[in-house]
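Practice problem 4.
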């Protein structure tokens, strides 16, 4: 069920503390942690603590948590002293999503070209 922790979800396991992660910020509704395969000098994932498979379903099912993810992105960028950064939500395997728990990638610390690829 949407919003409920999923036993087979890596990010739900991080939220529950069952899988270790380098957490840089945690709020009542979000967790931000360093990506284990960084694509930029700063690469942090920001996730809601509730389980939704992607950003669109999170926005439709729990707009407050979606807003909290966006707020946390800004707080993380400020804490990391990023003057410029990119935020990416991948939706679906064709777009590169590999963990089907809504999450934002916060990338910075180097020039980021456009279009991204």
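Answer key:
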């Amino acid at each position: 069920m949407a919003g409920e922790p999923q036993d087979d979800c890596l990010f739900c396991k991080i939220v529950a503390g069952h899988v270790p992660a380098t957490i840089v910020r945690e709020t009542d509704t979000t967790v931000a942690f360093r990506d284990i395969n960084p694509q930029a000098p700063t690469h942090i994932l920001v996730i809601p603590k509730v389980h939704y498979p992607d950003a669109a379903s999170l926005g439709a099912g729990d707009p407050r948590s979606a807003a909290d993810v966006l707020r946390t992105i800004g707080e993380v960028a400020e804490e990391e002293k990023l003057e410029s950064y990119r935020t990416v939500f991948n939706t679906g395997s064709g777009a590169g999503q590999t963990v089907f728990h809504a999450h934002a990638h916060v990338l910075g610390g180097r020039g980021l070209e456009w279009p991204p690829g």
